[in-house]
Amino acid sequence: MKTLPDPETLRPKFTPENQQALISEIQDSGLLTCYIGKNGLPVGFYFNGAVLEGGLADCLRRLPAPWQASMDHLINEDFYKRNLNAIRQGRLEEAVEVVAGQEITSLFLVSRFPLSPGGESGLLVTIRDISGISESRLKLSGSNVLFDLVADNMSDVFCVVSTSGKVSFLSPSIRELTGYTVEELLSRPLSGIVSPDSFEVVNRIWEEYQPLFEVGKISKSEIRPVCFEVKFVRKDNSARWAEVSSSPFIDADNNIQGVHGMIRDITERKTRQEAMSSSLQHEIELSQVKSKYISTVSHEFRTPLSIIYSNLQLLEKYRFELDEETIHDAFELSRMAVKSLLRVLDKVTIIDASG
């Protein structure tokens, strides 16, 4: 019989130097957080950043009323074993329906994080209420619709990088973004996935973090996220764009433990931006052509009109003093100017008809 791997040996998982800082952020995120010991029993609960003390029943009674009935069904003695088995099977995230009687009362997203060796906890489980999505399910057909909606809403990738540059955690949603599994992606060099220009951007951002790492400390109020865009190639060789929002994370003593980031696919947005930029450039070029065309036409009209106007002034002022030959020349020049104007008008008509 094949032996199941120990949860502590599974990836992805946190390293000792950043584990506590990252867990602190999860605890403060407003989720129900449950620690499971290596023996499969609960070690502790947090809700909205506050510890829930006492036994299992005491913890459940301290939850908000809408949670209590559902948690009575979801969290029981088998809950811990189920989550340990789920980790062994690689199910790090899944939606769970909690049924009371004949009705579906709640829907929760259960996320599991294997913890690194050295502590009494072997697994961290977070529970998020996503019951609101279930209302849409009543209006849509198909048993997979709800799970498709959940998957669409959880498409962002969460990653953690230590101060040494080692990737400590990468969420499984990376496969949806890149086509690579976590293991496949971590085994490839970054330069083989992102474009050369994007690789330079990533290196520049990382270099900007180095002075901060050397100081080693930063207060929470001083932390500012850094947003940048990268172009990468998926496993199927298609080019995509992603937006990365990164910031350092700290422990309780303000010691910098590394950098965490959210990665989001922005390919459609970039495509629209490029289309708008191309359209804008086309409009600029068209405007320049129109300006040049108007300037040329203006000149072509101005010269003949000046000739006609000058001859009219001459005839008006000196018509009784001019000889016949001079008058004839004035009329001839005017006729030539009129013909020139007609030729210009013909050109304008042809150009306008051709678009």
Can you count the beta strands?
Answer: 11
Proportion of β residues? 15-25%
CATH class of the largest domain, named Alpha Beta
Counted by DSSP, the helix tally is 11
- Into which percent range does the helicity of residues fall? 40-55%
Task: Describe what you observe in this structure.
This protein is an alpha+beta fold and 355 residues long. It folds into 3 domains: 154 residues, Beta-Lactamase (2-Layer Sandwich); 111 residues, 2-Layer Sandwich (Beta-Lactamase); 83 residues, Helix Hairpins, CATH 1.10.287.130. Helix content is 48%, strand content 24%. The N terminus is likely disordered.
What structural keywords apply?
six-stranded antiparallel sheet, 48% helix, alpha+beta, Beta-Lactamase, Helix Hairpins
Secondary structure: elements and pairs:
Blueprint: H1 16-27, E1 32-37, E2 42-47, E3 50-52, H2 56-61, H3 65-74, H4 77-88, E4 93-100, E5 103-114, E6 121-129, H5 131-137, H6 145-153, E7 157-162, E8 167-170, H7 174-178, H8 182-186, H9 196-215, E9 226-233, E10 239-250, E11 256-265, H10 267-318, H11 324-354
Antiparallel strand pairs: 1-2, 1-6, 2-3, 4-5, 5-6, 7-8, 7-11, 9-10, 10-11
Helix pairs in contact: 5-6, 10-11
